[in-house]
Amino acid sequence: VQLVESGGGLVKPGGSLRLSCAASGFSFSSYSMTWVRQAPGRGLEWVSSICTSSSYIYNAKSVKGRFTTSRDNAKNSLYLQMDSLRVEDTAVYYCARGKYNWKGDADNWFDPWGQGTLVTVSS
Amino acid sequence: SSELTQPPSVSVSPGQAATITCSANKLGDTYVYWYQQKSGQSPVLVIYQDTKRPSGIPERFSGSNSGNTATLTISGTQAMDEADYYCQAWDSDTASYVFGTGTTVTVL
Predict the structure, then answer these.
(1) Is residue A105 pLDDT above 90, yes or no?
(2) Are A46 and B35 in contact (CB < 8 Å)?
(3) Average pLDDT of B68-90?
(4) Is residue A58 pLDDT above 70, yes or no?
(5) Less Cβ around it within 10 Å: N or C end of chain B?
C-alpha cells in the first residue's frame, strides 16, 4: 500500500492550489480517503473525508466553501482543490486511506498515510 | 465532543507503563482511534475502534474508552516508543472528525 502526495508549494494569500494523492497496492475504489494537515510545529487537523462513490464528503469548518475534495477511481487518485488560501492554511497535507466501504458514519480510521506535501501560503 | 484534551507530555522509564488520556464529554459513546507520530515521520495508526490493534502493532499497545475518557497504554515502554500520540474521534455536533491536542511521550 502506497500513497504519494504531490502539488504542494508556495502560493500567495487568496491563491489556489490543487493537491493530488496517487494510491497503489490496494483496491482504491473500495476505500474512503481523507486529507489531514499539520501546521509547522502543531498538531494534526482533519480536513476532509470522501466515501468510495463520492456520495458522502465531509469537510472541516475551517475549509468549508474554500476546499473541495474529489476522487477519480479509474485513476486511483484523490484530489484537494484549495481556493482562497489563507496564511493559516500553511501546513503539511497528508492523504490517508480510510475505512473499507465507509458509509459516511462516525466509524472511520486513517491508515496508512502518505509522506505529505508542504503548502506554504505567504506573500 | 468538540475538543479532545490530552496531556501535553508524559514521561516514562524504560520497561514501565505509559498512560495517555484523551478526554471529552461522553467520549465513550463513540469510537476512539490512536496514532503515533515519530519525529519527521507521518502518523501511524496504533489503535482503532477503542481497543483493536492493526496488524504489525506490538501487543504492548492497548486502548480503552469509557465515560468521558479514552486511554492508550503502552506496557513495557521502549525507547522506540518515543513519539507524539494523537487520539481521534467523531464529533456529532459538527459532523466532523477531530484530533486530540497531542501528547509527547518521552522515555527517560
Answers:
(1) no
(2) no
(3) 97
(4) yes
(5) C
The string over A49-81, giving b where at least 16 C-beta atoms fall within 10 Å of a residue's C-beta and e elsewhere, is bbbbeeeeebbbeebeeebebebeeeebbbbbe
- B49 phi and psi angles, rounded to 5 deg: 45, 55
**Are A44 and B92 within 8 A, CB to CB?**
no
Judge whether A95 and A114 are in contact, CB under 8 Å. Answer: yes
> Which set of grid coordinates corresponds to residue A41?
510545529
Give me the pLDDT at residue B58, please: 97
To the nearest whole number, what is the mean pLDDT of chain B?
96
pLDDT at B3: 87
B3, B37, B97, B99, best to mutate vs chain A, most A CBs in 10 Å: B97
Compute how many other C-beta atoms are within 10 angstroms of the C-beta atom of residue B54.
14
Inter-chain touch A58–B97, beta carbons under 8 Å: yes
Cβ-in-10-Å burial (0-12, 13-18, 19+) of A96 comes to buried
